[in-house]
Amino acid sequence: MDGGITYQKIENFYDPILQNSVNLFQIKKLVLDDHNYPNFRLYAATSFGLFICDNPLSASPQWTNAITGVNYEEIFDIEFKRTATGYDYQTIYASGTRVIMSNDYGITWGQV
After folding, report:
1. Engineered SS bond to 91: which of 36, 48, 55, 81, CB 3.0-4.6 Å?
2. Residue pair 25/13 in contact by the 8 Å Cβ criterion
């Protein structure tokens, strides 16, 4: 909001399997989908998987594991598809032990 001068903590990651806050998460990369402003979607590539938050500016943001059926797969990077005019927010690539891709804004994922 102020060009990166100040930051506000928006969430502690919560592990639904362990039923507690996980302090060992390492966030590798955050990317923001703001094409549908003011409805932002935040993607977090972490040491425990790929997480999505549809309400990052909420007082109680909710994070979900984006890759259903897979727990604790380290994700190192995430990128939107680049086009000649900017970004295609519908197509997303992520990498960890494998390369995965979504063609529907991160709803479903498949191995490339």
Report:
1. 81
2. yes
